Amino acid sequence: MTFRVMRWAAVVVTLAAVxxxxxxASTPTCSSGVRDGVxxxxxxxxxxxxxxxxxxxxxxxxxxxxxxxxYFDVDGIKAVVKDAPEMRMEPFGSAREMLDDLIARRVPVYxxxxxxxxxxxxxxxxxxxxxxxxxxxxxxxxxxxxLTIDY
Length: 151
Hints:
Strand order of the largest sheet: 6-5-2-1-7
Number of strands: 7
Number of domains: 1
Low-confidence stretches: 15-29
Distance between the termini: 62 Å
CATH architecture: 3-Layer(aba) Sandwich
Mean pLDDT: 87
Helix content: 25-40%
Order of helices and strands: HEHEEEHEHEHE
Strand content: 15-25%
Structural class: alpha/beta
CATH class: Alpha Beta
CATH superfamily: DsrEFH-like
């Protein structure tokens, strides 16, 4: 009987250790201090200003307590070139002001190089602070898990 109790106690202690170790890795409050990241993907352009503005606003909100990266591709490139039309809508405000805020807070804002080329644009035509994407940037902006939000 004592052997059975000891064996069950060992099983319970082992299970508790496994649950604690794996549970910590899957929660944002884990004591390791690693923050999760939010990848905001904006493929919509000025013709869908609501989508662009919503993506930028989500990046602002998420970057307050998470690592964040904003990536523009497809028609989204048209929103980050110097001659982009101003996009403004309440309750979001101005796209340029939100981009300036994100860049000032060191949130990486990237543009797809292939999409730039497809639209006949060059990197020097991007707004100040917008960088041409490089694949390592997609993985180096956070050490935690990555959540993607598409607009």
